[in-house]
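Handout, section B. The chain below has 309 residues.
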Amino acid sequence: MAKTHNVTEFIFLGLSSNPEVQKVCFVIFLLLYIAIVLGNFLIVLTVMTSRSLGSPMYFFLSYLSFVEICYASTTTPKLISDLLAERKAISLWGCMTQLSFLHFFAGTEIFLLTVMAYDRYVAICKPLNYTTIMNQQVCAFLVGAAWIWGLVHSLAQILLIFHLPFCGPNVIDHYFCDVLPLMKLACSDTFLIGLLIVANGGTLSVISFIVLLASYVVILLHVRTRSSEGRRKALSTCGSHITVVTLFFVPCIFIYLRPSTTLSVDKMVAVFYTVITPLLNPVIYSLRNAEVKKAMKRLWVRTMKLEQK
């Protein structure tokens, strides 16, 4: 079938059709989005201005926080504005743009989380060679590779979806453009596309999640012989990473490992990995990391002193 796009725009059903619920959701998600931007920006600013946070772990953390801001910004502002709009519309090209950026930042985040697990493995299991292995050039290369991987993942997803013909209807039972809701609207067989999406999204998430968990298991087994203080510090650091990894990957696996079906709960799960996870990232890393908390306090003191002058 030749590719046809008779549909020029899509209509979102959003989270709820109840006007009162929409008003409450508007306030909630507006506050959550502000917290996401400010919290993650605070981590980026703290790492950039603190000499005590010069290790590769915090270098990667600052990029992860920046990606979280961008990732949440692909869907949340549109969600917030649509909660007050009578007609929740997005153009075909706007939909494809949102889809591409969503998977670009998601793919980048997956790679960054994997890099952070490798960094912790080297730091804990090979401490004497840590500065040699994770030097500045290697860290810059890994961050660049994360952006490239995100781009490749995004291009694969957008090419698969853009190839589909959309000739009506144009109502999406969601609050943003994603591969599964769009596949339901395609007027052609999507079985093969579904398999490719499983390979590019679902299977990738499962394999990455297993590799990440396995790496942290190796780390935790290695620290059994350390002193109690060394074990405590390693467990605290790895605990933060494992929490973030679990919060991000479990919802993604739930969504993208079954592309042929969509469930009513999908929108709530999507809220979790597009809004809640970026919100919890700065909370988890700041509250469970003494060095980050100290650096934030020093940044606050310096800021207050500058305002008093």
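Note. Strands lie at 9-12, 89-91, 171-172. Compare this with the example in section A.
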